[in-house]
Amino acid sequence: MKKRIKFKVNGSIVEVEVEPQRTLLYVIRNELELTGTKEGCGLGDCGSCTVLIDGRAVNSCLVLAVDANGKEIVTIEGLAKGTELHPLQKAFIEHGAIQCGFCTPGMILSAKALLDENHHPSEDEIKTAIAGNLCRCTGYTKIVKAIKAVAKREEE
Amino acid sequence: MTKMAVIGKRVPRVDAREKVTGEAMYAADIKLPRMLVGKIMRSKYPHARIVKIDISAAVNLPGVKAVVTAKDLPPNLRYGHFLKDQTSLAVDKVRYIGEPIAAVAAVDEVTADKAVGLIYVEYEELPAVFDPEEAMQLDAPIIHESLASYVGTWDMIKKGNVFAHVKLKRGDVEKGFREADFVFEDKFTTQMIHPCYLEPHAAIAKVDHSGKITIWTSTQGVFSTRSLLAQILAIPFSKIRVIAPKIGGGFGGKASDVLLEPACVLLSQKAGRPVKIVMTREDEFIASNPRHPCIIEIKTGCMKDGILIARQVKLIYDSGAYTSAGPLTTCHGVYIAAGPYRIPNVKIDGYGVYTNKISCGAVRGFGTTQSFFAIESHMNIIAEKLEIDPLELRMKNGFESGDLSPTGQIMNNVGLKETLRLAAQHGNWGEKLGGKNRGRGIACSQFHTGGRASCAFVKINEDGTIGLLSGALDLGQGSDTLLCQIVAEELGVPLEDIVLPTADTDITPYDFFTLADRTTYTAGNAVRLAALDAKQQLFELAAKILEVKVDDLGLKNRMVFVKGKPKKMIPLKSLSMAAHYYKGGPIMGKGTVFPEDEPYEKQTIEGGIQVSLHAPNYIAQVAEVEVDDRTGEIKILKITAAQDVGFPINPLSLEGQMEGGIVMGIGYALTEEYSVEVGKVINPSFHEYKIPDVWTVPKIKTLFVTEKAKEGPYGAKGSGNPPIVPVAPAIANAIYNAIGVRIKDLPITADKIIKALKEKNKR
């Protein structure tokens, strides 16, 4: 039987009826049609489906949609303000931290969760924050650089 | 060369904004009205005869709209890129666990999954063979009984389970061994790995009333997909439209086969509704195209001073159940199995062999990651015995421009030695490395730039902005940005003035494929020619309007100007307006390219194809490692890589290619490996099959060598494949340098280190 849930997604209140076994990822992609959140494995191994729940980065493929009831969700679509990109989005572009782009939304959201909580992360803290986000294209080097650059800017 | 505005600059990706905002649409993101969910039913046996397939229960399940089997395919048609040995749904027999047998389309995923479970297949199990050396025995079970009658792109030497025996011969290898001061023999093995692009395969098919098929699919080549589909479905190209959405990585894995498209089309035809099929990660591991495992036996004769005089190599590529990219992979391995070295006597035998496992395909560095692990490990074994520095041994024997390859091709624009010098210099080669159990290793490799046809159109819009039509695909490597840079440079416009729609077989002009390092080189050249053609037409029109000669004109900042007369100019916009509304007609440039084969000696090769190598590209790497001799754990501290890129059109994206390739290479060297037991993949997920995460990444230093390719755009060579190739041997050599053990079987795991250390201590 479907259950009615209500949560905040990218600043707007959303109400949907979902089957109890549905994952948050499924609801985000199929019901809300926010396809920026990607499915790379469906098992919580790759981080492509990362979203923020109450500011924490989580694999949305491992969360039941009903458990998101009453929570605040941010997906990649919620980062830019109008046409103004978030500093992390800009840094990823400038530093060449994107190739195929499939891991990018999750990677950026994991970085955002870190920087929102810790304005001056060390390189190890950055690595810890994105350790659950796999990228096969970039070799991570430019991703770490991009996140560092934003952290540094925030320091100034 | 005159100063360039956009070429050679660190330009961010043209599609970066849509990728950071989540707007970029990949195949799985597409939703069509009335779209159904498709699922594939796969074989549970590695080798079995199909006695009966009963789909009735699945067909009768409410919500199921179509079920298809091989009966829905045109009869007696086999397909394949190089050897037509495959059907998209199994006919009579299955040859690996995971082989597609049937497919269903239903209103939702749960129903589709249920329907798959309701398809009943009666099998008669057959003896199976999983080891390629066993498969080559005379008494091995035969996997393809009709191999002899299969049609190939070229005449392959086939026997039993060997679908291609490729032979290369130069000089007299036996005489060389007799004359040598030393002869070295080694055997190496490399494992099966998956390309592990983050985006799983996905396809959507829609068939309209006239029978016209439209497919959106994650592919490395829309034209090759169309061509294979036409073969499989026996319909003309005009009835098939293939569109590429954004592609989430490929590394060769989205080039080897059409894994989903045929079933997707059949389902859509039957159901009369659009159908989407998305592979799970498990599907990817059990039924897409991993890298060939390989057995490499290498024998080298050399003189006391380190000069190599003879080399014999036997390569056995385990291709799995079907050939896919196997025949060409075997060729690739063979052509460069002697290494980038001057050796007068060479004999190479490469075997592509069927086994009852997943079919292997072309994965980044295909054919060569395997052989170079052997070659470059073996070179260090030789160097140690001769007491020659491994760098010096490579410098003594390495190719220079003008040298002959074993196939008799004159090697041009060879940057090998400069890559070695530069990597050694920046990698502190020869300096002491402090710390316990630390070591340095060096390795180099050769790949080449792919050829074949590319074409492009450059349209000048009414307002002087530009439409670029190319059939080449950006899988993430950054080619779209490169192609736009070329147009921007040649037509003097900023990048934002250029629109590059995605590859679409009904609209964009032909491009052979995005693979084998060919896009920058061939599509890049086609785009450059198209831009130059458009420029010529613009100048002809401007010359009339400005009443000057074409040769007097230049183009920059959206203006056609008269050289030496700074005030005499006409905006591109006005010029194109004139062409559209006043005189001459709209301007459209065309570029079409087919790189000519470099001459080679035909008698050196038997049973192979595509012998001529375009713009060979080189890379050298120095790895620094630390080994924990109690746990066997290996830590990569630093990789210094110098790559001969010809000319760096976009240094930012080239660094990205190198960094990504190196990290992928670390996975190949240390952690990645399929576990296959009795034909079944037992680690089909990212928690059981470990690809590098951010913690794996060492310090990486990337350097460019610019030995320009004479035919490449601005001198550029292909650059995506080389970075992965020498990583594993550089690491293996560094481990030897650190703790004195030589691992000859990839991946180099902690267990193997501990075992080897125990054996060493016994001695």
Describe this structure in words.
The complex is a heterodimer of chains A (156) and B (763). Chain A is α+β, with helices and mostly antiparallel strands and 156 residues long. Chain A has 2 domains: 3-78, Ubiquitin-like (UB roll); 87-155, DNA polymerase, domain 1. Chain A has helices spanning 24-31, 87-94, 104-117, 123-130, 141-155, and strands at 3-9, 12-18, 50-53, 56-59, 72-74. Chain A has a 5-stranded mixed sheet with strand order 2-1-5-3-4, with helices on both faces. The radius of gyration of chain A is 15 Å and the shape is globular. The model of chain A has no long low-confidence stretch (mean pLDDT 97). The mean pLDDT of chain B is 97. The termini of chain B are far apart. The radius of gyration of chain B is 27 Å and the shape is globular. In chain B, α10 packs parallel to α17 (727-739) and α13 (479-491) runs parallel beside α14 (519-546). Chain B folds into 3 domains: 31-126 and 198-249 and 254-287, Aldehyde oxidase/xanthine dehydrogenase, a/b hammerhead (Aldehyde Oxidoreductase, domain 3, Alpha-Beta Complex); 294-450 and 599-762, Aldehyde Oxidoreductase, domain 4 (2-Layer Sandwich), CATH 3.30.365.10; 451-593, Aldehyde Oxidoreductase, domain 4 (2-Layer Sandwich), CATH 3.30.365. In chain B, β25 (614-627) and β26 form a beta hairpin. Chain B has a 7-stranded mixed sheet with strand order 3-5-1-12-9-10-11, sandwiched between helices. A 6-stranded mixed sheet of chain B has the order 8-13-14-15-7-24, with helices on both faces. Chain B has a 4-stranded mixed sheet with strand order 16-25-26-29, with helices on both faces. The interface between A and B is large, with 51 and 57 residues.
